[in-house]
Amino acid sequence: MIFDTPAISNTFMQVLEFLGTFTFAVSGIRQAAHRHFDWFGGFVVGVAVAIGGGTIRDLMLSVTPFWMTNALYLTSAIFAQVCVILFSKYLKYLDNTWFVFDTIGLALFTIVGIQKTLLCGYPFWVAVVMGCITGSAGGILRDLFLDTVPVLFRKDFYAMACVMGGLLYWLLYAFGVNTALTSVLTFALICLLRYFAVRYHLGLPVLKSDGTEEG
Hints:
By secondary structure, this protein is an all-alpha fold.
């Protein structure tokens, strides 16, 4: 398949990484705006959520962090800042804007994390873990900057959506499905899991202090 050649796969991964950087940056800047951060503070939050997960992944894979080899990623974060500033009066009417961009970024970065880990020669179970880290670690940094409980630790299908998406990617890969279709189906699954989890208040059982669990 054309998308399974090394050159095309690398280009495809870079496109996903750029889109993920932009969407995650928008989600971070939008939430910073809700907390009345100034322009610089909002940009810092946007960059943290956009490159945080990928940076941790690359350091664990012993490769140069992706944003240090190409200025396009920080440029995309700047572009996200400009878009939020210019269109803030329109975005404020879209209460779920941050959720949409956060979910898209989560799905895109999960896929990128899996693909990059496989290109580095690691087994698939490592790729699933790295996909989860790539997708969710930036959100943890964002929430810490905003002084809120990280979404990963709340009753929400966040990291689990990454894991389920990674397992689907693994399954499709095992059956020889081409990279493009595998990525599309994985993207759709993660987005749907996040949507239904938030729409119907689904999540994992919550631990209670007496050692029992609350459903």
